[in-house]
Amino acid sequence: MDILVCISCVPDTTSKIIFNDNKLAKEDIQFIIGPYEDYALSRAVELKEENKSINISVLNVGLEENDSLLRRALAVGADSAFRINVNPNDSNQVSSLIADFVRGNKFDLILMGKESTDFNSGIVHHLVGSKVKFNSLSPVSSLSIVDNSTVEVNLERKNSIEKIQVSTPVILGCQEPIADWKIPNMRGIMKARSKEINIIEKEEKEIKLKYESFTSPPKRSGIKYFTKDNISDLLEELKIFK
Amino acid sequence: MNCIVIIESSNNKIENSTFECISLANKISDNIIAITDINDEKIIKSINADTLIIIDDIEKIYLYDEEIKKYEDSFFIMSDSLMNKKISSQLSEIFKLPVLSNIIDLKILNSGFYCKSSSYNNNVISGINIQSGSCIFLIKNNSFDIDILNNKKPELIHLKSKKNHLFKMKIFNKKEINNKISLNDAKIVISAGRGLKSAGNWEMIEKLADLLGAATACSKPVSDLGWRPHSEHVGQTGIKISPEIYFAVGISGAIQHLAGVNSSKKIIVINIDSDAPFFNNADYGIIGDAFEIIPAIIESLRKNINDKS
Ligand SMILES: Cc1cc2nc3c(=O)[nH]c(=O)nc-3n(C[C@H](O)[C@H](O)[C@H](O)COP(=O)(O)OP(=O)(O)OC[C@H]3O[C@@H](n4cnc5c(N)ncnc54)[C@H](O)[C@@H]3O)c2cc1C
Ligand SMILES: Nc1ncnc2c1ncn2[C@@H]1O[C@H](COP(=O)(O)O)[C@@H](O)[C@H]1O
Taking 80 as the threshold, does the pLDDT of residue A207 lie above it? Predict the structure, then answer.
């Protein structure tokens, strides 16, 4: 079974996000593999531990600065790494590029995160699915392989969790508790060093969506304290009393 | 330009977030086409639209591509929900349009659109210009006012698809999430953290939620410990919500937790530790023991209800 894991490289949540001249100030930011994709990758590696014939590829749409995170993915247990050398502008552009890549290769299972923590769109998996005519399910909180052409997942829906068997190829948006995050070990790190990261060059298409400004949301105006004895004033202020 | 709105419902009730979309649509477009799979005319009468298209299964809108393609000169508005993320990507392929999520502001320009989208876990607001062509907008909950205006008499169109579903899927078992109120659509959310010390202590949280018509939520360690289901966990790795009112009880306010809740309109923090970081990101605070404060709030609400009757 061939698994593709699509990873975004995003600022660590504890980083302070600052934009200067509409560009993210990257200098002081620690970049990480998106937390949901880290779950997806970890589950793929767990599945490979049970079944050695599984082959795992990781893919990122992004610039050279992301190679260290792709190498980390190799160290965690991926077999090969690909990077489409285009600056990711938005989820639509990213999904077109991923769709092109998927069309040119054979994958049974494409794992992504439930959402990236930069765009927060939660939509790349469905957009790719619509483009390449694969089924897409998100968010899934468990994944196991039934046979060569079937997987079983827990799909979270608005008011329920469904246990579903679905035929491959399928795209899944993963979230916890699908797996525990894996930390690369020394052997993995050594092995990853000798592996190549495959760079795919693509023309940047004309951009229809123009991101004009990046600003901080309004700050809260300050806190007002209440005590056990004037709780009714708080409820009054919140207009909770009917 | 036509505005197409997708109607989302839960147990045959149209969601608040959908009414937000309808209200917004009526402000910026004068021809509203709503698409729904509710087949009960009494319910869909409350939708203020010019045309109502009724299909069998809204989540498989791609089956109706030929029929809806004739509304090509349109833009799309729908709430940013799990269901609509899927629907919008099907529409995106049919109409070759981009999708933008987390929209908190939207304007039509002489040519194109201008919108604002929340990103980086609510730490950044992007201003986006769509200079040419149309777009599919996914609206973040509680970002627009709801008008109860209902002055249109929609024309009803029933569509039947001649196509078959594309994908093979077998549902084995369906576990209802016993939240009486869905976390995503709730106006008020009562959330509690490790400060509550054990699963049994959620009884008072549920009681309070019941009285307020609120949904319940929790921090990540609480669901990791199995005190509450994972579906309730909010934050960077959980659900992201933006209710009118968010109560954080016994939650320290770690940045990963805030990532999921910091776009709530009003945040009320109840914590025994006056130095808890959550107080720096709140509108109201009560420094005190949750086991005293929560019963006191319940008591105050009950008293108010009794006084009224
Ligand atoms: C990559 C990553 C992702 C994460 N994602 C998430 C996420 O999505 N969501 C999330 O919530 N966390 C997440 N976390 C964990 C997060 O960092 C915090 O550890 C977590 O939010 C703390 O949960 P808590 O506030 O319930 O517990 P604690 O930090 O233990 O805080 C308990 C609080 O309760 C207070 N308290 C104690 N007793 C009482 C009492 N009697 N009355 C009132 N208050 C009391 C204490 O003063 C304290 O402030 C993530 C962490 C990492 C590293
Ligand atoms: N630049 C990228 N490169 C590879 N995969 C990505 C990229 N951006 C997003 N993805 C994948 O798409 C998922 C959903 O992203 P989004 O729609 O942006 O929230 C993420 O969890 C990733 O798995």
Answer: no
Domain B2-158, what architecture?
A: 3-Layer(aba) Sandwich (3.40)
Q: How far away, in angstroms, is A98 Cα from ligand 2 center?
A: 9
Among A130, A157, A165, beta carbon nearest to B89: A130
Q: Where do the structural domains in chain B lie, given as residue ranges?
A: 2-158, 188-308
Q: Is B126 on the interface with A (CB under 8 A)?
A: yes
Disruptive mutation site among B126, B242, B291 for chain A (greatest number of A CBs within 10 Å): B126
One CATH from 1.10.357.10, 3.10.310.10, 1.10.150.320, 3.40.50.1220 for B188-308: 3.40.50.1220
SS3 B271: strand
Q: Do A235 and B288 touch (CB under 8 A)?
A: no
- Contact between B74 and B2 under an 8 Å Cβ cutoff? The reply is yes
Alpha carbon distance A240, B287 (integer Å): 20
Q: What is the pLDDT of residue B178?
A: 66
Mean pLDDT along residues A137-141: 96
C-alpha–C-alpha distance, residues B37 and B120, integer Å: 34
Higher pLDDT, A232 or B149: A232
Q: What is the pLDDT of residue B179?
A: 63
ipTM value: 0.93
Q: What pTM value is reported for the model?
A: 0.92
d(C-alpha B99, C-alpha B301), whole Å = 43
